[in-house]
Every structure is written in C-alpha cells, then in structure tokens.
Amino acid sequence: MPTIAKNNHVLTVIIIFSVEPERQQQLVDTIIEFLETAVKHQPGFVSSSIHKSLDGVRVMNYAQWQSQSDYNAFISNSQVQSLGAKLSKFQMLDAHVFEVVVSQPEDATLNIAPGDLIHLAEFRVKPENQQRLVELEREYVKVGLQHPDLISANFHRSLDGTRTMNYGQWQSLADFEELVKDPKYAPLNQYWRGLAENEFHLYEVVFTASGAATESLSAG
Fold first, then answer.
1. For the CA atoms of the chain, what is the radius of gyration?
2. C-alpha span between 55 and 74 (Å, rounded)
C-alpha cells in the first residue's frame, strides 16, 4: 500500500491534468491503462495513486520512484512512453519531482487507499522564497490540524525550487470551507501571501498501483 512520510526515502512525482468534467473518467481510465500495461513493470517504480477532483476539472497522479535515475530512465524510454500516447490528448498542467519535508502529526504514517478524501494545496514560488515558505508551512500546519476532520498534512518541496504542495488527508470534506471562513484558521489564508501563488482542489483517491520496488523497500 502506498504511504507518505518524511522517512520514506522515495522520490515523489506529482502530475496534474486539467480536464473537462465529462472527460474526467476517460482520463482516469487512460492513466490506469498506461500504469497497468507499462509503468508498474519499470525498474524502480514504487507506486502510483490516481486522484480525481470533486469538481471534475482535475486528475492528479501521485507517483513514487526509488530514485531520480530510475525516474529519468522511465521518462527517457521512448518505447515505454509510446504506450502512453493517448495521454497526449489531455492537458497536463504541472509535473514536478518532490521530497516530503513536513509531515504532521509526527507519528502519522499516511496510507493512500481508494476512497480517501484529500485536498492538494498548490504553491507556486520563486526558488529564493521556497525555503522560507517551507519554514512557514512547518510553523502553521498545527493550526490546520486543530480541525477535527483533518487527519494529516504532508508538505512537499519540489527539487527545482518552484513548488511546494500540501497533501492533506481528511475524514470528511463536508466542513472543509471552515478552514477558509472560521477566524481561528485565518493564519492559514495569510502565511504564504507575498511568497507564492496558491490554489487548491479537493480530491478522491480512485486507484492505486504498486510495483516490484515496493517489496524491496519494505524488505529494507
């Protein structure tokens, strides 16, 4: 089962697609087909978790690889990439390589499973501001965890310095807007201003796949 934690020692790749609501399921199916026929058999592939946004306009792939060299070999393998040619019919908005830098609560290990409800907060930042943003995220994440439905928050730093992303797992998203409207959560709407551009979407996990590398990581 895919997990997210600071001590995972895996490379994380987050890929986000923009899609029309009527084509969202088609995109999900196309990604799953590519995963099953090509990706999951690649050396160093650990896991892939497909998320679809509740508003119908996003699909996100949260993928893990053993190393940067394994991921580079995968994306440079033209024969493998040709098997995913159908994906070129959809708009890829963002694709970056990340490491987990903040994981709260400290004792939480987040297992990713179909049916999970998450929010992905996307922060686009200049490289010179990324570390400061990470420090603020570490400081303010405990404010968010006061919400009774928020299970865990995991902040990711892109290796190129231009992104941070918060993968937040929720018991329920029914009261998510409380984080936006309730005064006690106001700091969460302020700390990143002047440092980054922000948007978020709410997602459901609809599919997970694991590769042979998962077993070797567990054994290690």
1. 17
2. 31
What is the distance, to the nearest Å, from the Cα of residue 80 to the centroid of all Cα atoms in its chain? 23
Calculated CA dihedral for residues 74, 78, 83, 86, nearest 10 degrees: 100
Contacts with 116 (C-beta within 8 Å, 6 or more apart), sequence order: 169, 204, 205
Q: Which residues pair with 88 in a beta bridge?
A: none
pLDDT at 217 exceeding the cut of 60: no
Domains along the sequence of the chain with CATH:
8-219 (3.30.70.100)
Residue pointed to by tokens 């058999």: 41
**Distance of alpha carbon 124 from alpha carbon 142, whole angstroms:** 22
Q: What is the pLDDT of residues 157-215, one digit of tens each?
A: 999 999 999 999 999 988 787 777 778 777 787 888 899 999 999 999 999 999 875 65
pTM above 0.90, yes or no: yes
Provide the token pair at 210: 């694991």
* pLDDT value at residue 143: 86
User: What span, in angstroms and rounded, lies between the C-alpha atoms of 93 and 167?
Assistant: 17
**Residue located via tokens 């987050």:** 14
- Alpha-carbon gap, residue 143 to 188, rounded angstroms: 7
Distance CA 1, CA 21 (A): 28
7-23 per-position pLDDT tens digit: 778 999 999 999 999 99
